Amino acid sequence: MYGCINDWLNNCKHAAEPCRNGGYTTKDCKCACPLGTTGANCENFIMSYNDALVKQISPDSTNITTPDAEVISPGYYTLGSTQDKNYTQVLRAPKCQRAVATFEDFRLKKRSSEGEFRCDANSLEIHADVSVSAGEI
Prior knowledge:
Layout: H1 4-11, E1 24-25, E2 31-32, E3 37-38, E4 44-45, H2 49-57, E5 62-64, E6 89-91
Parallel strand pairs: 5-6
Antiparallel strand pairs: 1-2, 3-4
């Protein structure tokens, strides 16, 4: 819009943008890499920007793709119900297969008898056909 990046490319003596995967050259001639990429030129693609953003904001969130994986909520048994944690666990099945979740133990804090009778400490939401990379959580 303002041509800053073109000016920086010229000042850095770059004929073309050396940064990859959505990165861009900064005024100090280094690449500013988007989340989910690493390397001097952002050449290593680790995960999508949206998945990396979810991981940064909610580090306990995971994508589960391994068959027969055991999933345990972060802090389960040790933190009790006093620790508030927000996270997403996405079960992703291979193409033409489906994800199945079996709960062997499941605990939620009792609904409060105070105020509006809210269940504000624990909750579980199950969605079908979600896509973290498309921002549909």
